[in-house]
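Revision sheet: structure tokens.
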Amino acid sequence: MGNYVTISTKVRKELIDEARKLGINISSTLRRALEEEVRKRKLEILKARLNELSEALDKIDINEVVKIIREGKGLR
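Predicted:
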């Protein structure tokens, strides 16, 4: 069943009672919510890194790169 840990949190009793009346699987719902939050945060970090790389790539002169490649191949 994999490696699992038990976590706990305090929630208003009224909210738990209402969730139970509505047939909400609390464990499953909390698990999905945590998984979604982790996915969102990872995506935010990835976007920030891509922005940093984009700024660095914007500084590269494509014509200079082409010139260097051609010189390396003896094409001038």
